[in-house]
Specification:
mainly alpha
């Protein structure tokens, strides 16, 4: 029987900060691009709403994928615990 333990991976503060800064910079660049776009106000508003919808959809998709992955990990742990219990209770030398 192999002893497998899952290692919880944690991101460093620098990695988290870099991700937040990158997201902020990208959103700022898109906002400036839309603001200075040589088009009517309704076109710029449409593009801004489209970008906001895309961003919220990306966050939702990332959360759904993460939740599904965590759910699979929990089911796997329960199945592994059941198997270990059965193997621990099994006595191969017991007479039938």
């Amino acid at each position: 029987m192999s002893d497998t333990t899952s290692v919880k991976q944690q991101n460093t503060g620098a990695y988290y900060g870099q991700a937040v800064a990158s997201f902020g910079l990208a959103m700022g660049a898109v906002a400036l691009g839309i603001f200075f776009l040589d088009a009517d106000a309704w076109v710029r508003a449409f593009l801004a709403i489209g970008v906001l919808y895309l961003v919220t959809s990306c966050f939702t998709l990332a959360k759904v994928i993460r939740d599904r992955q965590e759910e699979g990990r929990i089911v796997s742990r329960v199945d592994q615990a059941r198997l270990e219990k059965i193997l621990a209770e099994h006595d191969p030398f017991q007479k039938l």
